Amino acid sequence: MSRRVEMYIFAALVVVLGFVLYHEMIPGGAHVSVAGVVAADGQFHPLDVQEPELHLDLLDNIRKTEYAGAHRNIFEAEPIPPPKPKVQAVKPAQAFSGPPPTPSLQVPVQFFGYASEPSSGRRVGFFSSGDDILVLAQGDTFLDRYRLLSVTNSSAEVMEISTGRHETLPITQPPGQAGN
């Protein structure tokens, strides 16, 4: 053999040796050693099962339940059929008593005073809502749903904007001021 062929063979053996060493040194390579299996067995902990027997009574209850919804083919693009109307017994006609009375408007503020401008006579009402004090002129909107319509010496008229219902709030002493 010539020196040149020997060099080619030597280079090929070095490449094969490098490939074999590379695959042997890789952690978690393609092969699993016996030492890895033994180490994994030491980390295994079985589940703590308190009641290993089956609850057959619960399984029977599940088997006895039946689906009561609308039965249809889920693979067809059809709307759900409307439910069948239930036949009710006809009740004898009752005398019409008129519409039910509207409940009184509950405004979450307390009217406790007013002031008037001497030049124009325009009145301003003082209201308390929790810890907040509201100073409102006639026509002002407050709490995003009420409007102050008028202020008199003894009361304030408030309207709920969404329904148009009116409520008259009497003037009262604010809490904590009764002894002054």
Describe this protein's structure.
This protein starts with a helix and ends in a 10-residue tail after the last strand. It has 3 helices and 7 strands, in the order H-H-H-E-E-E-E-E-E-E. Helix content is about 25%, strand content about 20%. It has a domain at about 110-170: SH3 type barrels, CATH 2.30.30. The chain is elongated and about 125 Å long. The mean pLDDT is about 80. It is of the alpha+beta class and about 180 residues long.
Strand tally:
7
- What is the N-to-C succession of helices and strands? HHHEEEEEEE
Strand content: 15-25%
Count of separate DSSP helical elements = 3
Largest sheet: 4 strands, antiparallel
CATH class of one domain, anyone?
Answer: Mainly Beta
End-to-end Cα distance: 124 Å
In CATH, the topology of one domain is named SH3 type barrels
Overall geometry comes to elongated
In the sheet with the most strands, the strands line up as: 4-5-6-7
User: In the CATH hierarchy, what is the architecture of one domain at level 2?
Assistant: Roll
Portion of residues in helices? 10-25%
Q: Give the radius of gyration.
A: 44 Å
- Low-confidence segments, ≥5 residues, pLDDT <50? none
Structural class: alpha+beta
- Mean pLDDT, nearest integer? 81
